[in-house]
Amino acid sequence: MSSDTPTSTSPAGVSRRTFVAGAGATAGALTLGVALSACGSRESAPAGVTPPSGAPAGTLATVSDVPVGGGVIAGDVVITQPRAGDYQAFNATCTHAGCTLSGVSDGTIDCPCHGSKFHLDGTVANGPADRPLSKVSVRVDGSNIIRQ
Ligand code: FES
């Protein structure tokens, strides 16, 4: 560490800044654990698609990733295709209590926490959620689905 760095160093060689950052990270991890426990989710991060390498900025997925009558999770967005060529996208956060949606199956977008399901157009199919998913604007450019 250079002499112009405004941090002190303990005899053990751990700077105060390093220690405080470490303590903050621990507190953050504890907070995250509490939040996950409160949510009730026992699932890991949702499986989903990733944009192809070299794709334009903002690309979420390709059209071939999204089946007609189904959908996929792409990062923090769920993309559906209710009818051929009709791509719709929504924030992948459940409107009930904020859990991350787990995927799309049998024609619904599913939340793992309390059983809410959403139609492919984002409207509620089954509660306890009572509000539709938040829309995300996307456009299709060639084979790429791009967030606008
Ligand atoms: S957070 Fe409760 S059903 Fe999704």
From TrEMBL:
CDD domains: Rieske
Name the UniProt record assigns to this protein: Cytochrome bc1 complex Rieske iron-sulfur subunit
InterPro entries: Rieske_2Fe-2S, Rieske_2Fe-2S_sf, Rieske_Fe-S_prot, Rieske_Fe-S_prot_C, TAT_signal
A molecular function (GO) term: oxidoreductase activity, acting on paired donors, with incorporation or reduction of molecular oxygen
Keywords (A to Z) from UniProt: 2Fe-2S, Disulfide bond, Iron, Iron-sulfur, Metal-binding
SUPFAM superfamilies the UniProt entry points to: ISP domain (SSF50022)
Annotated function: Iron-sulfur subunit of the cytochrome bc1 complex, an essential component of the respiratory electron transport chain required for ATP synthesis. The bc1 complex catalyzes the oxidation of menaquinol and the reduction of cytochrome c in the respiratory chain. The bc1 complex operates through a Q-cycle mechanism that couples electron transfer to generation of the proton gradient that drives ATP synthesis.
Highest taxon of source: Bacteria
Transmembrane regions listed in the UniProt entry: none
The Rieske domain, residue ranges: 58-147
GO-annotated cellular components: membrane
Required cofactor names: [2Fe-2S] cluster
